[in-house]
Design goal:
By secondary structure, the chain is of the alpha/beta class. It has 17 helices and 20 strands. GO terms for molecular function: ATP binding; UDP-N-acetylmuramoylalanine-D-glutamate ligase activity.
Length: 473
């Protein structure tokens, strides 16, 4: 797309009235574009409409009217979650009109160098961690994007002295054209969001757009233990900085000695940064990391790699590794009840995320899982259910699928929570059932392996209700 200043006097359609849509509409309007915002929600469900109309921006609610997209429209900016199959997007593509997400607009506006972080799991934790690391060494980060401040707003506020640290979803990246982060990080790739992307090929291709415009002056931070990340190496033009839990790298960030599952040898392991020219730096001991779980060691390696690629001294990262206690809804400790520890991992919206959470505990786990059915059979959970879970409380659209896998895993305690008067009542019942099964020394874990939208408006709402239910036991 052109720079936003170049749409002065031209028609732009923004699809979706979420935070990012409101902000991008304001940005384009301020630069003289003739902006129309369209949302399928009814007007009474769209409180943001009045604010935009007071600025002179046209807002159409209640559906996508015929003629919304026509030859006079020069740009469509869509909410990342809106499928490409909806009529206004299809109309735009047929007419050859550019369709982008807010990320593309923000990139064109931003004076600060950008760090882009994506992956199926761990994005928010790693992005937040990088922000803390850069802040600790005086690099003036602004954390934005898929978390926190809308990217367009942050981009306008940023100067050349800042670093823009951006969490990015596959939905956002799919709608980019010229976006080029100075540092790009791919954490991992798991089968998820196939209801949106259609197949893994489109999902991986969307993630890979993070690297599409990078050059040899940029850096790509890649998970060397993830096969999908390794497959991208021949197509990445940037300087590659790998990180690994299992391999001592010639250059990159790694654990020495390599990670051995189900051992207690954290005291003997260190996070190392190795550079061709500068040699080795011991960043920190693994046991000093402030977050539990193997996957958080992996997130820590990624965060170190990104911070180093941006210019941080690896010798100054230890304090940020130890002091960071995580992000809400990501393996968040809630309370101890009757000697059992309760953890909120509502952000686990796919099987891999739940697997990673379960393998973080050596104690017996009572698992609460289930949610939106996106077509997975959840068979990849079979080994971890056999090894780490003493009981399952299943809920939501996928409860029968999860019960089938739990039965194959040989679990003796399996409970199905039926649909009640409300989603909150179902989850509250699930917590009570889990509490009845838990004994002193156990972990009760909400880690749904599914999106929340069959019952809740968001994973955040699901996590908050879970925490309330635990505190009310």
């Amino acid at each position: 797309m052109k720079h936003p200043d170049m749409y002065r006097g031209e028609e732009v359609v923004v699809l979706g009235l979420a935070k990012s849509g409101v902000q991008v509409a304001k940005v384009l309007h301020e630069r003289g574009a003739i902006v129309t915002v369209n949302d399928k929600k009814e007007r009474e469900q769209s409180p943001e409409a009045s604010e935009l109309e007071s600025l002179g921006i046209s807002v159409i609610c209640g559906g996508h009217p015929a003629g919304l997209i026509h030859e006079g429209v020069k740009l469509v900016v869509k909410n990342p979650g809106i499928p490409y199959s909806v009529p206004p997007v299809q109309d735009a593509l047929k007419l050859g009109i550019e369709v982008v997400t807010e990320v593309e607009v923000a990139y064109r506006l931003c004076a600060a160098p950008m760090i882009g972080i994506t992956g199926s799991n761990g994005k928010t934790t790693t992005t937040t961690w990088v922000g803390r690391m850069l802040d600790a060494v005086g690099m003036k980060p602004i954390v934005a994007g898929n978390i926190g401040t809308p990217l367009c707003q942050a981009a306008q506020e940023a100067s050349e002295d800042n670093w823009m640290v951006v969490e990015l979803s596959s939905f956002q990246l799919k709608g980019t054209e010229t976006f080029r982060p100075k540092v790009a990080c791919l954490l991992n790739v798991a089968e998820t969001h196939l209801d949106y992307h259609g197949d893994m090929q489109d999902y991986v291709a969307s993630k890979a757009k993070l690297f599409a415009n990078q050059t040899a002056t940029d850096t790509a931070v890649l998970n060397w233990d993830d096969p999908f990340c390794r497959e991208l190496v021949p197509y990445v033009k940037a300087n590659i900085l790998p990180f690994s839990m299992t391999e001592e790298l010639v250059q990159g960030v790694f654990v020495r000695p390599s990670f051995v599952p189900d051992t207690d040898d954290d005291l003997k392991r260190e996070i190392i940064y190795r550079d061709y020219a500068e040699g080795e730096t011991v960043i920190a001991a693994v046991d000093s990391i402030g977050l539990p779980g193997r996957f958080n060691i992996e997130n820590a390696l990624a965060a170190c790699g990104v911070a180093i690629a941006a210019g941080a001294d690896p010798a100054l990262l230890a304090e940020s590794l130890s002091s960071f206690r995580g992000v809400e809804h990501r393996l968040e400790y809630v309370a101890d009840k009757g000697g059992a520890a309760y953890f909120n991992n509502s952000k686990a919206t796919n099987s891999k995320a739940t697997t990673m959470a379960l393998t973080s505990f050596r104690q017996p786990v009572v698992l609460i899982a289930g949610g939106l059915d996106r077509g997975s059979d959840y068979m990849e959970l079979l080994p971890v259910l056999s090894g780490h879970v003493k009981a399952l409380v299943a809920m939501g659209q996928t409860k029968d699928k999860l019960i089938k896998v739990a039965t194959l895993a040989g679990l003796k305690h399996i409970i199905s929570v039926d649909t009640g008067e409300s989603a909150a009542a179902v989850l509250q019942q699930a917590v009570r059932e889990a509490s009845a099964l838990a004994e002193a020394g156990d972990v009760v874990l909400l880690s749904p392996a599914c999106a929340s939208w069959d019952m809740f408006t968001s994973y955040e709402e699901r996590g908050r209700i879970f925490k309330e239910a635990v505190h009310n036991l």
